[in-house]
Design a protein that fits this description.
The protein is of the alpha/beta class and 751 residues long. It is built from 22 helices and 32 strands. The strands form five sheets. Strands 6, 7, 8, 9, 10, 11, 12, 13, 14, 15, 16 and 17 form a twelve-stranded mixed sheet that branches. Strands 29-30-26-25-24-31-32 form a seven-stranded mixed sheet, sandwiched between helices. The protein has a six-stranded mixed sheet with strand order 18-21-20-19-22-23, with helices on both faces.
């Protein structure tokens, strides 16, 4: 008996070879009907014998293409119509989107084999791709995902490529970016003045030679430009740092293959899998002794950020040249990376010696993702290329909400039904280029996912550009959300945990409801609200933001608060002009108070002889962590006391211990281990007291401080041993990259 069914498949099913897969499965099981892309998902109508329909459904569930992710299948029984064949119908017109757009994917093994085959017509073609790999999100202007709605629309396929595209048995059947040297994008090499030097493979060859010669080459990748130099050439790395305005922050390294990755770093199986995955992120991994790279690549750090080539062009650069290249975002200091050719020629002229360009447009800049393997999970440090725009599924549904994140490490989040579409890492909104990318991304997500929000949610801080955009440029309702409440809600939402929890929220800064700077907070709550259960002792930051850039000032502010005019004799004080700082402390001028755990780290590191002036965010805390390497040591004393409205985690007993340790000659490494151990025990004790007061047994960890590997792993182990259920971040960063998700779910709850 013949039957007919309509299946609507939702999830990551466009741009991943899903229709060709369905076509092949239907023919394999002798079914007739059609498949088409629609904004609601991939719609399939199949007709045939009942057992064939059952086998077809099993194939959908078990044999989907490698990049496909099926979120759900809706099935409807239809009357048979006697169809005689199975076809791929043209896609429906754009409309409200229910499927996902695929992230960009690293070149697959099949394409790489063709790329390396001298007899293949795509030999060394830097834009080779198929349905299983290549650009997706960054070239997509609209949906459904078809060539006319991508930046490939201007490249007309040659007869050979068109034949592949039309052949159901071919790996490039309906591969939208399909191209070859005869009809697709092309390379060109230009100098810093914009003069064209070469095209095609000659351009790649000259770029390779420039890298060997120690020159800086800007390379256009999937989501934007990189700045590349030989990672073993100290002079080239130093010159790159000088030109880029990045004096100390570690630089990412791209290596030719996994063998080279093993030579540089100790790698476990999870790290190897991440490196070789379609996302091809930067993986933070422990350096090996004698690695051979320039010390200036990652000074003061025991890790390299390494990645494998993600595009055929990157593979082409490694032919016969340096086995490891610094491959860092092409920008100056903390600006967003360049993605447009003309923009790159303008912004990178003073940094790069040469620019390796191509003529396939990038619609939306998408920086490299950064991950780290901690406590049994691969965790996001920066979520971007390869992962975005795959949604975070949450345990609620309701009105659409747009959340616009914070000021640094900004992301935005579009909440649609039970999907949270968190954007790529947008970076620092303090500069015009960053703010421009922020606005462009909001417009792009709204267009791609055809969603009009009922509410815009922003941070409590009135000075953030994201806040000002929400309040000044939007005509729909807005809601302000406290920074650390957003962190708590984000961790709960990512873990699909709906009930209240104890939130240990540790970061650098966020405006509190009392208009002081919070950052070491213990909260009880969920998306509906929170209680501030405990915080660190508020301490002054003499000079405000200057004390963040110069941790010795924070250290002096903490010491002055605890010891008054009788400052202890510590070596670090001798290197600074402390008189003017003591004067503003005495007069309480421009000395904002903070409970920040990040600033506490900075202060302890500085007074122990660590970093006095930072060259990048959290440098002092990172180097302090690296110096200790663990939290296994005798802790300093700590205490809790009752304040007016919350418990106070006293800073003074810890700092008395730190001062005594310095005066007794304990080194930076031992003090670091003792301090980390103290924080682990203190935070566990305050969690116990919160459990006793509330009956809650679930703890959520969020905030940038938990990117400290030593603190995170030791605290997680201690909390587990104390019997807590512990929720942590993995799909999103624990830092401010998760804020927009928390804001969004709080906003929906308010609606």
């Amino acid at each position: 008996m013949r039957k007919r069914q309509r299946l609507t498949v939702r999830g990551l099913v466009q741009g991943v070879g899903f229709r060709p897969f369905v076509y092949g499965a239907a023919h394999r099981h002798s079914l007739t009907g059609f498949v088409t892309n629609t904004p609601a998902g991939v719609v399939i109508e199949v007709e045939g014998a009942a057992e064939s329909l059952s086998a077809f459904a099993d194939d959908l569930a078990r044999r989907s293409p490698p990049l496909a992710v099926i979120q759900g299948i809706e099935q409807e029984e239809l009357a048979p119509i006697g169809a005689t064949d199975f076809v791929i119908r043209p896609s429906a017109e754009p409309g409200p989107m229910a499927t996902w757009i695929a992230p960009d994917s690293a070149v697959c093994a099949d394409c790489l084999a063709e790329f390396s085959d001298a007899a293949d017509r795509r030999y060394h073609y830097p834009f080779i791709n198929c349905t299983n790999c290549g650009p997706r999100y960054t070239i997509t202007a609209n949906i459904p995902y078809d060539r006319p709605f991508t930046s490939m629309r201007g490249f007309v396929m040659c007869p050979a490529c068109q034949a592949e595209y039309d052949d159901p048995a071919n790996r490039r059947f309906h591969a939208q970016p399909n191209a070859c040297p005869a009809c697709g994008p092309h390379l060109e090499l230009r100098d810093a003045a914009g003069e064209r030097l070469a095209g095609a493979e000659e351009a790649a060859g000259l770029a390779r030679q420039a890298l060997v010669d120690g020159r800086i080459v800007a390379v256009k990748g999937l989501g934007g430009f990189h700045l590349a130099v030989d990672a073993a050439c100290a002079a080239a790395v130093v010159r790159l740092r000088q030109r880029k305005g990045r004096p100390a922050k570690p630089l990412a390294v791209m290596v030719a293959d996994l063998a080279m990755a093993h030579r540089l770093c100790h790698l476990d199986q999870a790290e190897i899998a991440a490196l070789a995955s379609p996302a091809a992120p930067i993986v933070l991994a422990r350096k090996r002794p004698g690695h051979g790279l320039a010390d200036a690549v990652a000074p003061g750090n025991d890790m390299f950020g390494i990645m494998l080539p993600s595009t055929p062009l990157h593979h082409l650069l490694f032919h016969g040249v340096c086995p490891a290249l610094v491959m860092t975002s092409a920008n100056f200091s903390e600006e967003p990376l360049c993605a447009d050719n003309s923009e790159a020629l303008r912004r990178l002229a003073g940094i790069a010696d040469l620019l390796l360009l191509h003529d396939r447009d990038i619609y939306l800049a998408n920086d490299d993702s950064v991950v780290i393997h901690l406590a049994g999970a691969m965790r996001q440090v920066r979520r971007s290329r390869g992962y975005v725009p795959q949604p975070v599924e949450i345990d609620s549904s309701g009105p659409p909400v747009l959340a616009v994140g914070g000021e640094l490490k900004n992301t935005i989040c579009l909440l649609r039904e039970d999907q949270a579409l968190v954007s790529q890492h947008l970076g620092d909104l303090k500069n015009p280029a960053g703010f421009g990318l922020f606005k462009k991304t909001i417009a792009h997500l709204g267009r791609i996912f055809t969603t009009v929000p009922a509410l815009v949610v922003h941070d409590l801080h009135p000075g953030y550009l994201s806040t000002r955009w929400a309040l000044e440029e939007q005509e729909i309702p807005t809601l302000a959300v406290q920074h650390h409440h957003a962190h708590l809600a984000a961790c709960l939402a990512e873990n699909r945990f709906s009930g209240p929890a104890i939130g240990l929220i540790m970061d650098g800064a966020g405006l509190g409801t009392d208009q002081t700077i919070w950052g070491g907070e213990v909260m009880i709550g969920d998306a509906a609200g929170y209680e501030r259960f405990a915080s660190f002792t508020p301490m002054p930051l003499p000079g405000g933001d200057r004390a963040v850039a110069e941790p010795w000032r924070a250290a002096l502010g903490y010491l002055h608060t605890i010891f008054g005019d009788h400052l202890p004799d510590l070596p670090f004080l001798a290197g600074h002009a402390i008189g003017p700082v003591l004067e503003i402390l005495a007069k309480d001028l421009n000395c904002p108070k903070t409970t920040s755990c990040g600033r506490l780290f900075d202060a302890v590191a500085a007074m122990s002889g660590g970093c006095q002036v930072i060259g990048y965010e959290a440098q002092g805390a990172i180097e302090f962590m690296v110096a200790g390497g663990s939290a296994e040591a005798l802790p300093f004393e700590f205490s809790l006391r009752s304040g007016d409205d919350r418990l106070i985690m006293e800073v003074a007993p810890m700092l008395h211990g730190v001062v005594a340790a310095v005066q007794h000659g304990e080194g930076l490494a031992l003090i670091s281990r003792r301090f980390h151990r103290t924080l682990v025990l203190l935070l566990t004790e305050v969690a116990r007291q919160a459990r006793q007061a509330t009956g809650l047994n679930t703890v959520a960890l969020s905030g940038g401080v938990f990117q400290n590997q030593v603190l995170f792993t030791a605290l997680l182990a201690e909390l587990n041993q104390a019997g807590f259920q512990v929720l942590t971040h993995a799909m999103l960063p624990s830092g401010d990259g998760c804020l927009s998700l928390g804001q969004a779910v709080i906003g929906r709850r308010a609606l």
